[in-house]
Amino acid sequence: MVQITRASEMGFCMGVRRAVQIMQDRATPDAPVYSVGEIVHNPHVVTQLEHVGVHQLPGPDEIDGDVGAATAREVHRGRVAITAHGVGERVVDQLASSGLDVIDTTCPIVTRAQRYAHKFVREGRHVLIFGDQGHKEVRGILGWTLGEDGASHATVIPSADIESLRTLVRDFPGGFPNKLGVMVQTTHRMEDFAHFVSNLMLLQRDANFEFQVVNTLCHATTGQQEAAMALARNVEVMVVVGGKKSANTRNLREACEESGARAYHIEGPDDLDISWFEGVDQIGLTAGASTPDYSIDAVEARSIRPCSLAALAGIEPGDSIARVAGQVPRDVIDFQFLAAEREVEVEVRKANGLADLLIFDKEIDEDLGIEFEHATWDDVTLCNNNCFFCFLKGLPRGMRKTLYMKDDDYRLSFLHGNFVTLTNLTDDDWWRLEEQPLSPLNVSVHATELDLRRKMLSNKTAPDVLDQIRRLGDLGLQVHTQIVLCPGVNDGEHLDRSVRDLGALYPTVQSISVVPVGASPKLEQWSRERDGIELARPDAPSARAMVRQVRRLQRELLRDRGAAIVHCSDEYYVTAGQRVPAAAHYNGYPQYENGIGMVRSMQEDWKNVRRRFRAGRITGIRPQHVVVASGRLAAPLLRPIARELSKLSGCDISVVPVTNTVFGERVNVTGLICGKDYVETLEQHAADLFILPRPSLDYFGRKFLDSMSVAELQERLGRPVGYASQWSEVIDILRDGPRTPERNEHSNGAFWAEDIA
Known about the structure:
about 750 residues; 24 strands
């Protein structure tokens, strides 16, 4: 399967995002905004803005005479916008004096460059601009270099080649100026600008001039280039998305090629050529500063499996599957089950309405390479319970909308690891479980005593879960179970009974997790006022008691069943201040995503990293100040490792705990921290690099629980941000720089990351 990796920094920069947002906020179809010249160098963005009432007029270079007067006639004295590239000083004055409502969306980085150019001229310096003569930004900067004589006191130099510079110095009209101000187009490459300045210094030895240099490069653009180059060194092909007129996108492609990858510059998915990816396993994806997220997503969707059997047969995004082996599939499971043959017939309904019949000759277990927008096509089975401790009841507003979907679908349990109660299974569901052995399933038990379980589920007709698990065992299926512990309800002797009842069903029951109830302050209040139940998270004494109880039950099961299949959440061990069990105890970490064994896995990974350091196998890390963010629960465990890593790597690594203000301070696990809290905490800390926990992101690695994107968080922090689940991944980030978060290696959470209409 082809793997696509996104660069850690890519797409809309701050300036473009700001300009587009301002125009969208101000424009309506009835009260349009007119931009002076091309809005951004991206046709897709221009088209999108047209739909919301942003229209493009000729720019200053296309208008003879008074730009303001010509624009006023065109828009009937309406609202006009200066684009993110900026314009010259006279154009600004002409627009303002024409009675127009001027909206200035010039990128602040470009405004800074304009001010430096203006300052140089006032100081009597001739301005050298390393950039492209015809670029809109450069033309605007030139408009700020006019002297009292009305002439521009600037020269644009497109090449850093020393012979070109030597010719310029020798043949400069009237003699080369002896006092210079040197700057650079904001979207150029740092390496090229450094080469330019270096060659200028060489010429200074023989020529009578002095110069002052100011670095006007855009930090975001430089970061994108560095991220693209780092990625290009580790993949075979780079796809660079952006407008054909975009200088920074062209620079990205050149940087990728210089880093050793084949690179292709495209504007959108229709430009992709499947032949580029033949025999390729690793594809890198980056995008220019004027490329919106939806264009990047569309390219990734089109590229995801470009050389699969389905792609080679002409199946494209937007097509749908009508029949497989003559049957209509209900969901992804049906499709996989029906396609597991050496020869399979697939009827495809094309996006244009036509039908196509395809016959695949393949290995039985060979994947066709088709990815579906949703896992279930006949809707999702919703929960028919009303648990007083249901975490969804306490969700604040503004989270990802799929988080509010109260699903209880055994298919999602098989596909994505969701926990289900089995209270809504129909006869058809049981027949299907027998026909298509969907194993293992994750089952929320909470209590094995029927009356107590019905009370906890608020479902008077809930069936006996032990009978259901026995029936699953008779079908050859296995389950992983969980008990969400509510103090005073299903703890104590009730927990003993539940664990023993489930343990008696081993090996059908492969594991039992005991996890603390996760309640927001809002849910705690509701439960206390409505049900008279305190949903308290464990404190140190109660956590120690829980660890003792579970250890006793483990010994019993090991003696009676030959396997200690019950585990309590890492949160209990950490809160109790006790060591977590050894790695072998977790039997392959089947409930890792449920918080069972994460600490031990992290500690084992660190031991391996430390051995590699001491053996001299980790090199190439430059000293830098790094802040590792964490939930408050895990921070004390991370600090001693961070101190040791600082000594081994030469970096200054500190751990910063983040308080959860969205769900409440008592919710202290890393996976429930929102982007808002990371930003508000980390913007108070200076660092060269921030590293955040990967579990705080969705399955796809794109958003936090509050829908803040990784791009938005990095823009607000203004520094590179990496994401890691293990210390070995931290080492990769320190050595090679941040990379775009990849999909979760476990399937858990895929459903809640989808966009459900």
